Amino acid sequence: MSEDEHAKRGIDLDRPNAARVYDYMIGGKLNYAVDRMFADQILGVLPNARHMALINRAWLRRAARFGAEQGIRQFLDIGSGMPTVGHVHEVVQSIDPASRVVYVDNEPIAVAHSEIVLEDNDNAAMVQADAEYPDEVLEHPTTTELLDFGKPVMVIMAAFVHFIPDSRDPAGLIARYSEVLAPGSLLALSSGTWDGQGEETRRTVALYEKSGTPLTLRSADELRALVNGFEILPPGIVFTPEWRPDDPLEDPPEQSGGLALVARKER
Fold first, then answer.
1. SS3 266
2. What is the pLDDT of residues 188-235, one digit of tens each?
3. 8 A C-beta contact, residue 256 and residue 56
4. CB 3.0 to 4.6 Å from 131: which of 47, 78, 103, 184, for a disulfide?
5. Number of other CB atoms surrounding residue 136 within 10 Å
6. pLDDT in the model for residue 5
7. Are strands 258-265 and 230-232 parallel, antiparallel or unpaired?
8. How many CB atoms lie within 10 A of CB 7?
9. Cβ contact 57:83 at 8 Å
10. Closest to 112 in 3D by CA, of 34, 30, 179, 45
11. Which conformational region is residue 94 in: left (phi greater than 0), alpha (psi within -120 to 50 degrees), or beta?
């Protein structure tokens, strides 16, 4: 792709992009040299980073499956990133092919490849929008066509809110999405945390500061404050591998570097 084509698509190759870095970490190929260089810097100070990304992706699949098993048939995946094997639509449509999924991301490569992957799937689509502006997402024609907010929806924010500092009011952002949700809707959220972490995490956060995409890691109590108005379901706010694991844990859960929860809107 030429420089003009990159610019036309809104792809900035001067800075690493969080979605593309994450894609590289979990073994994807939808990334550029600038992303790989930054990811390798992270791995230099946090050798477990690739494993942490894979653990988060595994949690995402378990959370989506849980939502489908609870009877949810509509899913809104905020900051969905790159299309990968076992993404939300594959998980939930394996339970009910009529399940509908709207992915949201503002990264052009994620959007372009998602559109290709979902081309023949009438019940799943990608919306290119900045999820920090909920009206852009909720009023998008694709969203309104696929999702009926008069019925329960599962909103997924996997590794999303730690890119939103307190100054940009993540609690208010979540509340805005919550406003349109019917009772019985679910919110699945995961985030990087300081809890149980060491010097490697501090150095990783410093690298992200220099990249122009700073991280705001949060404790369990801070995440609880973000989901005020939701009932947090068992097992509560836990390290990602502890959230309804499929198999016995082999490693200390704090090595995941992240916390996760699923919560229900009661009214």
1. coil
2. 999 999 999 999 999 999 999 888 789 999 999 999 999 999 999 999
3. yes
4. 78
5. 16
6. 40
7. antiparallel
8. 11
9. no
10. 30
11. alpha
- Strand 100-105 with 74-78, pairing: parallel
* Collapsed DSSP state (helix, strand, coil) of residue 162: helix
Q: How far apart are CA 85 and CA 94, in angstroms?
A: 13
10 token code pair: 């809104």
> DSSP code of 82?
S
Counting as low any pLDDT under 50, the low residues of the chain are 1-10
Q: Please tell me the distance from the alpha carbon of residue 91 to that of residue 68, in angstroms, as a whole number.
A: 9
First-last CA distance in the chain? 49
Distance CA 194, CA 254 (A): 10
DSSP state of 184: T
Query: How many whole angstroms separate alpha carbon 110 and alpha carbon 128?
Result: 9
- CA 112: distance to chain centroid? 18
Residue 60 CA to residue 188 CA, distance in Å, equals 8
In sequence order, what are the residues at sequence separation of 6 or more whose Cβ sits closer than 8 angstroms to the Cβ of residue 205?
214, 215, 217
The amino acid present at 169, given as its one-letter code, is D
Dist. CA 42–CA 62, nearest whole Å? 26
The C-alpha atoms of residue 50 and residue 185 are separated, in whole angstroms, by 31
- Which residues, 6 or more positions from 141, have their beta carbon under 8 angstroms from its beta carbon? none
Residue 113 confidence (pLDDT): 85
45 vs 49: CA distance, rounded Å? 9
90 token code pair: 């594959």
Phi and psi dihedrals of 218, rounded to 5?
-135, 150
* pTM for this model (two decimals): 0.91
Looking at residue 13, what is its pLDDT? 67
